[in-house]
Design goal:
The protein is an alpha/beta fold. It contains 14 helices and 17 strands. 35% of the residues lie in helices and 24% in strands. α1 packs parallel to α4, α1 packs parallel to α12 and α12 packs antiparallel against α13.
C-alpha cells in the first residue's frame, strides 16, 4: 500500500503528535490525532520551551511554520541566572539583539500555533486508547475507552511517558530518576511582586545546592512558573505529610524544607498562588529501543522519555515528528519508512537521553552551581567564552 493512501492514527496531541500531523498533511497524507483530553483548553499546557535550531526549530521549518514561530518567540526568554542557596550569583546573562539561538515560546502558544495549522476535524478529542489488536490482513484495530473502535494501517504512539502504544512494542517501563518536584506558579509578577520580577529577570533562574533546586521561568503571560525539586525516595510525595491540595499549608512545609535558603529564593514559595502539582521525574533507559513491528512506531516521550534537565525532551520529540514525516513522504511503503526512521531516531535520542541524565546528576551533586558555571564558561572547543552580565 502506498503511504499516500494509508490510514494513519497518531495517539496523542502534544507537540510531537501535532507536528507530525501537520507535516503529513503538508505532504498529501491524511492522519487522525486521537487525544485523551476532552478539549484543547481542558488543562494548562505548562511552562515555556527553548526551541533548539537543530531539532525543534528544524521541525517547525519542515512543517512550514518557522516564520509564525519567529513572530511568537520570546528572545528575551534566553536570559539566565545561576545561583546557590545563599543567593550567590554564579552567572547572570542578559540576551542581546544578536542572541537568537534558542528563543523561548510558551507551551500554550506553541500548541495553538500547531492546532491552527492542521486541517479541521483532524483531532478526535476525548479518545483514550485502551488496546491495539493486530489483524490477519495487516491492519490494526484500535480500541478506546469511550468504546470507539478504529481500523488503521499505521499507529504512531505520541502518548507520553506511560504510553499505551509502547506496551505493544516493548516491555520496558519508565524508571524513577530519584528526583521529585513540586510545580507552582506566581501570577502578574511585574504588578504584584516587582521585587521578585527584578530578581528573576526576563528568562530563567536556577538555584542548586544540597540535592535540592529551585527553578523558575518567566512565561509570556507575565506568570512565573516555579519548580522545587529534591533528590528523594520515590515514596516521599505520598509519605511526607504535605497537603499539596491545600497550598497555603503546603507552602509552610516547603519553606521549612528550605529553611536555610536565602529569603530572595524563598519568595518563589511565599508568593506562589493557585494549585500545586507534585510529580515524580521518570525516564526510559538511555539506550531504549525495540524490535520493529509493521504498522506501529513511537515518537517523543513514548519512545525516549528523558528528564527535563537538558531542555531536550520537547525538541527531540518534534525532531522525531519531522524525521518520521519526511521518511513517510520519501519512501513508498510503510515498512521501509518506519525502519529508516527508527534506526535514525534510536541513534540521536540515546545521545539526548544521556545528556539529560548527566545534567540531572550534576544538578543534584555537591557544589552543583559551580560545576554548571564551568560548563557554561566553556564552548564545545573548550575555550572560555566572554561573560555577559546584567548591569
Amino acid at each position: 500500500m502506498s503511504n499516500k493512501n494509508a490510514r494513519i492514527a497518531i495517539i496523542g496531541g502534544g507537540p510531537s503528535g501535532l507536528t507530525l500531523a501537520r507535516i503529513l498533511q503538508q505532504n498529501g497524507m491524511k492522519a487522525t490525532v486521537y487525544e485523551r483530553e476532552p478539549s484543547s483548553n481542558s488543562r494548562q499546557q505548562g511552562g515555556t520551551l527553548d526551541m533548539h535550531p537543530e531539532s525543534g526549530q528544524y521541525a517547525l521549518e519542515v512543517a512550514g511554520l518557522i516564520k509564525k514561530f519567529e513572530v511568537n518567540a520570546r528572545y528575551e526568554g534566553q536570559d539566565l541566572r545561576l545561583l546557590d542557596k545563599t543567593g550567590k550569583v554564579y552567572w547572570d546573562a542578559i540576551s542581546g539583539p544578536e542572541d537568537n539561538h534558542r528563543p523561548e515560546i510558551d507551551r500554550g502558544v506553541l500548541r495553538k500555533l500547531l492546532l491552527d495549522s492542521i486541517e479541521p476535524n483532524t483531532i478526535k478529542w476525548g479518545h483514550h486508547l485502551k488496546s491495539i489488536n493486530s489483524l490477519d490482513n495487516g491492519q490494526l484495530e484500535l480500541h478506546f475507552e469511550n468504546e470507539h473502535t478504529e481500523l488503521v494501517d499505521l499507529v504512531v504512539g505520541a502518548d507520553g511517558a506511560f504510553s499505551r502504544v509502547r506496551e505493544f512494542l516493548s516491555d520496558v517501563q519508565p524508571i524513577y530518576t530519584g528526583i521529585s518536584a513540586v510545580e507552582m506558579g506566581i501570577s502578574n509578577v511585574d504588578e504584584i511582586h516587582p521585587d521578585l520580577a527584578e530578581f528573576n529577570g526576563k528568562g530563567s533562574m536556577f538555584a542548586f545546592q544540597d540535592q535540592k533546586a529551585i527553578m523558575a521561568q518567566l512565561n509570556g503571560d507575565g506568570r512565573i512558573r516555579v519548580y522545587l525539586a529534591f533528590r528523594i525516595e520515590k515514596e516521599w510525595l505520598d509519605n511526607c505529610g504535605i497537603k499539596f491540595e491545600q497550598p497555603t499549608m503546603a507552602k509552610e512545609s516547603l519553606l521549612q524544607l528550605l529553611s536555610d535558603w536565602s529569603d530572595d529564593l524563598k519568595n518563589y514559595i511565599r508568593y506562589s498562588d493557585g494549585e500545586m502539582l507534585p510529580r515524580r521525574i521518570y525516564m526510559l533507559p538511555i539506550d531504549h529501543s525495540w524490535t520493529h513491528k509493521d504498522g506501529v512506531t513511537l515518537i517523543g516521550d513514548s519512545a525516549h522519555l528523558m528528564s527535563p534537565f537538558a531542555g531536550k525532551g520537547a525538541n527531540i520529540a518534534m525532531l522525531d515528528a519531522a524525521e518520521l514525516g519526511l521518511s513517510l513522504a520519501n519512501h513508498s511503503d510503510l515498512k521501509t519508512a518506519l525502519e529508516h526512521y527508527e534506526k535514525k531516531m534510536f541513534a540521536y535520542s540515546s545521545k539526548a537521553t544521556l545528556e539529560s541524565d548527566m545534567n540531572l546528576k550534576l544538578s543534584f551533586s555537591h557544589n552543583a552551581a559551580h560545576k554548571f558555571l564551568d560548563i557554561i564558561l566553556r564552548d564545545s572547543t573548550g575555550k572560555l567564552r566572554e561573560v555577559k552580565t546584567r548591569s
